[in-house]
Amino acid sequence: MLIRPFARHDLARLTELTIETFRPFYEDSFRPLVGEVVFANQHGDWRGDYRREVAGLHAPDRHMYVAVAEIGDAVAGYVAWSVDVARGNGTVSHLAVSAGHRRHRTGTALCEHAFDRMRALGAEVVEIGTGGDPFHAPARALYEKLGCVPLPVVVYYRRL
Question: At what angle are helices 106-120 and 137-145 packed, to 10 degrees?
């Protein structure tokens, strides 16, 4: 596996990978759980949101970075992170691994890569979040295996 910096030609594939990775959460988990009104209000255009969001993840001038994992000629996954240099804090904002490369340490390698780069930029602490639902259980297991400590947070939705 090669982990390399983001290049502009990666944008379409990373956007597609993000949508493929999180479609089951939005369509099969979140939407049925909260109903159509809340879904439409909170994440009705989740695909479009990701298309806009992924395009802005790599901005080194703002201390925002993306690294891409490749296996052969295929993109296996990516990680996006930022560093607040003044506070010494790093944040992993996105981690997506293609279905065929999950459970092969790709996510672990990407996180460790991001952690190393954050340290090099002066970060002493990293924040990485995920959902508490069944879809996100593998992410929680990965982050705990990496030594991250979970902070329980509960978010409630209700149609008015």
Answer: 50
Give Cα 88 distance to the centre of its chain: 20
Tokens coding 49: 């949101």
Tell me: the pLDDT tens digits for 13-63? 999 999 999 999 999 999 999 999 999 999 999 999 999 999 999 999 999
Q: pTM for the full model?
A: 0.93
Strands in 89-97's sheet, in edge-to-edge order, are 2-5, 64-71, 74-84, 89-97, 125-128
- Which ranges of 44-155 does DSSP label H, i.e. alpha helix? 46-55, 106-120, 137-145
Phi, psi of 64 (to 5 degrees): -120, 130
Least Cα distance to 160 among 35, 33, 49, 43 occurs for 35
